[in-house]
């Protein structure tokens, strides 16, 4: 891929907070390219450095080392021009509590310099997200506040959307609408940089994923490759007791590991098909069966402990 | 700079002109009412004669003779009291320039828009400077209107000028608060230090003016209250350099605030 295809180009970007003994390294020599027209998932547990990266890109905080550019423009020297062309949704969204959605939209559109067309698009977005913009922010639920944040971030149809955990607090229906919107963005050749710690969200909409942990970028892969970890956590609850010998049977199965028991419940980590497990537990009366998708941390550990090959 | 932020600041905060302007105007009318009765002000003048100089200075006059005239009464009492009330407004306005938005997290949304930090701070400062000007003008008009309405024998231009002279000091307190909030980052600490700045300035003015010697002179010279000096207008001794010093200090303070705000991390 040619460098000219990069919308975001980050080189050796580091950020430390505090000084002396209280110094914390939040981001450690990050190198990353986000390509034009892709939805890039920036994945990591809380405190991994996702928000720090985004705040650096927006010039809200200043790097301790390294540099970055967006659209080929330096994030510090050309920050105003960059911000003209991007939309942003912060993880911890705060808005003017005493003002209505319409007032905020009008103000933000005025600063962007094109009130009429932006406000028109804002109305369309609000309608799609089922948001009442006539209400004051203090009267909106947290989910509706986040919808308003999305409208503000997207209403000027930016070339690049930077979204920091955008769907937390949104109901599943709105999340689905949001995913559709992201697909439409991609179809228009626009770029989305989306930070999340929700694996399913990243799986649903992203093309590539970067995994960040403790301020270090551990991998950048296609979403298919990074989430191709075929294991589940399975929790089986028996009505009476765990059938005799079941634990030994399970421990002897190659597709099952980490077997633990608690009263009449058995929990295990299972790779591959379910049929062998179902046959093994058939001797008892199964009262409940819970199958959990691997968490981000599970995938992370699996990916880096070599389990992936298994 | 597009003026959008100035316009928005005025649109969202113009009511402060009414609240503060009418409040201070009511105070002005009350003081006018007292001044309309020569018997009352001569009674007060007799009371003030018994007070020590420091206490007299606290009422905004260095000479008890000022209280025997209507204009001396109005200027001394109103200007000294309005200076304190306007300082409270100025501290609140100084916090509103950037600190409140930064503390609440709204600044992240603002600075994701195509506006530079410097332009944003400057426009907010101008917005609140205009609101402060509106307050001073409204209370001056009400106070002078009271003089006309109550047929008080007092030179209106002198009273108007002495009230308008509150404005540079108000800007200074607003800017000092803005500077402190930008430097200290924590709103609660900035409020405390700004309040201390106002109180210490007031005490320095009172103590410095009623004592003599190098220390007293120094205390007076570093107090912004001493540059408001309403009685100078009554006595015809107003020195424009006093206002220039306050304006110069305001510009330096704002320059420092701007420099700090532009160069540091936001919201940490």
Could you tell me how far the N terminus lies from the C terminus of chain B, measured between alpha carbons in angstroms?
26 Å
- Provide the succession of SSEs of chain A: EEEHEEHEHHHEHEHEEHEHEEHEH
Largest sheet of chain B: none
User: Low-confidence stretches of chain B at least 5 residues in length (pLDDT < 50)?
Assistant: none
- Derived from helix and strand composition plus strand pairing, the structural class of chain B reads mainly alpha
Radius of gyration of chain A, Cα only, in angstroms? 23 Å
Q: Largest inter-chain interface?
A: A-B, 31 and 24 residues
Q: Could you tell me the number of beta strands of chain A? A: 14
Oligomeric state, counting identical vs distinct chains: heterodimer
Report the helical percentage of chain A. Answer: 25-40%
Strand content of chain B: under 5%
- What is the fold named in CATH at topology level of the largest domain in chain A? Rossmann fold
| Tally of separate domains of chain B | 1
Write down the CATH class of the largest domain in chain A: Alpha Beta
CATH A-level architecture of the largest domain in chain A? 3-Layer(aba) Sandwich
CATH superfamily of the largest domain in chain A: P-loop containing nucleotide triphosphate hydrolases
Number of individual domains of chain A:
2
Q: In DSSP terms, counting alpha (H) and pi (I) runs of 4 or more, how many helices of chain A?
A: 11
Taking the alpha carbons of the first and last residues of chain A, their distance comes to 31 Å
Number of helices of chain B: 15
């Amino acid at each position: 891929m040619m460098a000219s295809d990069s919308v975001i180009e980050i080189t050796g970007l580091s950020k430390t907070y505090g000084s002396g003994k209280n110094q914390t390294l939040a981001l450690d020599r990050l190198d990353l390219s986000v390509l034009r027209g892709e939805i890039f998932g920036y994945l990591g547990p809380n405190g991994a450095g996702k928000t720090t990266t985004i705040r650096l890109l927006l010039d809200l905080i200043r790097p301790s080392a390294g540099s970055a550019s967006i659209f080929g423009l330096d994030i510090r020297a050309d920050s105003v021009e960059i911000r003209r062309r991007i939309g942003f949704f912060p993880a911890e969204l705060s808005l003017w509590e005493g003002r209505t959605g319409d007032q905020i939209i009008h103000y933000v559109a005025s600063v962007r310099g094109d009130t009429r067309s932006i406000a028109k698009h804002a109305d369309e977005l609000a309608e799609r997200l089922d948001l009442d913009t006539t209400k004051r922010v203090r009267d909106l639920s947290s989910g509706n506040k986040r919808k308003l944040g999305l409208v503000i971030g997207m209403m000027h149809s930016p070339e690049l959307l930077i979204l920091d955990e955008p769907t937390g607090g949104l109901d599943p229906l709105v999340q689905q609408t949001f995913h559709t919107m992201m697909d439409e963005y991609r179809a228009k050749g626009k770029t989305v940089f989306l930070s999340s710690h929700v694996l399913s969200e990243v799986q649903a909409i992203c093309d590539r994923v970067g995994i960040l942990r403790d301020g270090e970028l551990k991998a950048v892969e296609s979403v298919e490759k990074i989430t191709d970890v075929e294991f589940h956590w399975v929790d089986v609850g028996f009505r009476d007791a765990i059938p005799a010998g079941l634990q030994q049977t399970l421990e002897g199965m190659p597709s099952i590991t980490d077997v633990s028991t608690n009263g009449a419940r058995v929990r295990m980590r299972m790779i591959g098909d379910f049929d062998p497990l179902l046959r093994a537990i058939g001797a008892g009366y199964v009262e409940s069966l819970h199958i959990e998708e691997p968490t981000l941390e599970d995938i992370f550990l699996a990916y880096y402990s070599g389990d992936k090959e298994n | 700079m597009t003026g959008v932020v100035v316009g928005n600041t005025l649109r969202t905060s113009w009511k402060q002109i009414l609240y503060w302007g009418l409040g201070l105007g009511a105070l002005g009318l009350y003081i006018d009412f007292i001044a309309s009765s020569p018997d009352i002000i001569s009674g007060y003048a007799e009371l003030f004669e018994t007070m020590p100089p420091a206490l007299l200075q606290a009422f905004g006059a260095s000479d008890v003779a000022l209280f025997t005239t209507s204009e001396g009464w109005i200027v001394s009492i109103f200007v000294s009291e309005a200076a304190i009330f306007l300082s409270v407004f100025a501290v609140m306005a100084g916090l509103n320039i950037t600190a409140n938005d930064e503390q609440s997290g709204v600044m992240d949304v603002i600075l994701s828009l195509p506006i530079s930090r410097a332009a944003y701070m400057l426009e907010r400062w101008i917005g609140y400077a205009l609101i402060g000007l509106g307050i001073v003008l409204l209370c001056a008009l009400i106070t002078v209107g009271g003089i006309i309405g109550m047929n008080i024998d007092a030179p209106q231009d002198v009273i108007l000028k002495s009230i308008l002279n509150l404005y540079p000091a108000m800007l200074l307190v607003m800017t000092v608060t803005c500077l402190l909030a930008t430097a200290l980052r924590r709103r609660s600490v900035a409020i405390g230090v700004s309040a201390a700045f106002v109180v210490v300035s007031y005490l320095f003015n009172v103590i410095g003016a009623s004592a003599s010697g190098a220390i007293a002179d120094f205390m007076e010279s570093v107090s912004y209250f001493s540059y408001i000096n309403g009685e100078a207008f009554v006595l015809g001794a107003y020195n424009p350099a006093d206002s220039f010093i306050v304006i110069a200090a305001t510009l330096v303070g704002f320059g420092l605030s701007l420099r700090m705000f532009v160069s540091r991390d936001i919201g940490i």
